[in-house]
Design goal:
The protein is α+β, with helices and mostly antiparallel strands. It has 17 helices and twelve strands.
């Protein structure tokens, strides 16, 4: 009698789970489509996943267990290559976009789409950062910050400082034994961005802020669960600490300006610029606005360059033929530098054609920013589907960068694919696009190039565990943060 009872109980449990799941999915559909009228007939294909959490569980499992492509591939298998799929993500009805053309149209259409970042991102970056502002306010602040970050004059001024820090760091690492290569590069790029934006080389301030930014970054794509033990809760505490530290720097800067008066001199960095700027009516930025903008820039300004520099080194050393080609290019550039010239200039940087291909291929393969977020301001028709007003749009860059119809054998690292190749609009989006193209992308690529130049000429990486598992959230990285030794070459090339 016991075996039939157990079988009956098991069958009942399975039926109950299936029934609850079926009811939940249809409840989601009813909840998010009941007021759409005829519009619901033109929604992209897809489903809303499980009750309340939607498709987030599937998304997290795919990335946590090392198969990130399986998340979107399930949509493709079930609904075909539609390029757009309805889903429930981050608590909102959403459309996931995996095709270049609709992605391009949405990125460049600021009239019908505004930022739609998750609650976690908006709270952690701040409502006054670029993720929370749009239209004229966004354009105004981008104009303000563009020249100090990516202007020709600014980039030229940054090169000697970046060179100095890179050469010093590499020499130091070569004497340290085993290091977490990624961790050390992140510290390096953070020091550089701190100097550019705050004129600060204070080890105390840099160390405090860099540690807090690590916690902040882990929470940017997390569910907004503000309970101890959850990533988002720790990230919010990190933001409080960052705001406190930056406010103290701002207060000290203001005190110094007040004491020195006209003797304070010209603008020195981004903080000075933000303190002095005013709009047409004479309104200056409030402290919370300045701090939010700095938090956004300081975070974005070091994470991408650190990760891509690390992966470029790792991928090149996995492919000796590409490594040798990149090294020889840097040797030739180094030899052509005039004896009277100290270090690199933008002229040499622009001669690094193959190294630029290496960087682009790494950006494509790694897809540091795997997606961007928008929100429909009105009902928008794209490719025969309608994105309803108020729905979120997730532009899935990773799927585009790994599409075999765009990039043959997409999982293969091959810088040569970029020779004489100009990607079609919407097919290469490592820094986003449109009016919200990452404002620091030129600075990031310059940092990466200078780092790779000196590394390739004089050093090699010896990983402790070349087969270390790869983690994909919040960004693609080795689980051991690339634990390695940096070996200085016995006969280094001059530079």
């Amino acid at each position: 009698m016991e075996e039939p009872s157990l079988a009956f109980a098991t069958t009942t449990l399975v039926v109950a789970v299936l029934l609850i799941t079926w009811i939940g999915k249809h409840a989601n559909k009813y909840l998010y489509e009941r007021n759409l009228g005829e519009t619901k007939d033109y929604l992209p294909p897809g489903d809303y996943g499980l009750p309340i959490i939607g498709n987030m569980w599937s998304f997290l499992l795919s990335f946590m267990f090392g198969d990130p492509e399986s998340f979107t591939s399930r949509f493709v298998k079930r609904f075909g290559r539609a390029g757009m799929y309805k889903a429930l993500m981050y608590g909102s009805p959403s459309v996931i976009v995996t095709a270049p053309e609709p992605c391009r149209r949405i990125l460049f259409d600021d009239e019908r789409f505004c930022p739609g970042w998750p609650t976690s991102t908006q709270v952690l970056m701040g409502k006054h950062s670029f993720v929370g502002i749009f239209d004229e306010q966004h354009r105004f602040l981008r104009r303000l910050t563009a020249a100090p970050v990516t202007g020709h004059e600014a980039l030229s001024l940054y090169i000697p400082y970046i060179e100095q820090k890179v050469k010093s760091a590499l020499e130091q690492w070569s004497k340290m034994g085993e290091i977490e290569f990624l961790t050390e590069i992140r510290k390096l790029t953070f020091k550089i961005i701190m100097y550019i934006f705050l004129s600060s080389e204070s080890e105390r301030v840099v160390d405090v802020l860099e540690k807090e930014y690590t916690h902040l970054n882990h929470g940017l794509r997390a569910m907004a669960i503000n309970i101890p033990g959850f990533v988002y809760h720790r990230a919010r505490k990190a933001r409080v600490n960052l705001v406190t530290t930056l406010q103290s720097v701002l207060d000290e800067r203001r005190r110094k300006r007040s004491v020195e008066g006209k003797n304070y001199g010209k603008k020195k960095d981004m903080m000075d610029g933000l303190m002095e700027i005013e709009d047409e009516s004479g309104r200056k930025l409030r402290d919370e606005e300045i701090i939010d903008i700095l938090i956004m820039y300081l975070n974005a300004g070091h994470e991408s360059s650190a990760h891509i520099a690390m992966w470029s080194v790792v991928l090149l050393q996995q492919h000796p033929e590409f490594l040798e080609k990149a090294r020889k290019e840097q040797e030739e550039i180094s030899k052509r530098i005039p004896p009277t010239q100290e270090g690199l200039t933008l002229k040499e940087y622009r001669q690094m054609e193959y190294l630029s291909n290496v960087t682009d291929e790494t950006l494509r393969l790694i897809s540091f920013s795997l997606m961007a977020f928008r929100e429909a301001r009105q009902d928008v028709e794209i490719n025969g589907y309608i994105i309803p007003k108020g729905w979120k749009v997730l532009l899935w860059f990773r799927s585009i960068h790994l599409d075999p119809e765009i990039y043959p054998d997409p999982k293969r690292f091959d810088p040569s694919r970029w020779k004489d190749f100009k990607p079609r609009p919407g097919t290469f989006l490592p820094f986003g696009g449109g009016g919200r193209l990452c404002p620091g992308n030129d600075l990031a690529k310059l940092e990466i190039a200078i780092f790779l130049h000196y590394f390739l000429l004089n050093y090699r990486l010896e990983r402790v565990d070349p087969k270390a598992p790869t983690l994909y959230l919040p960004h693609t990285r080795p689980k051991d943060n690339c634990l390695a030794r940096i070996r200085k070459l016995s006969s280094p090339s001059t530079a």
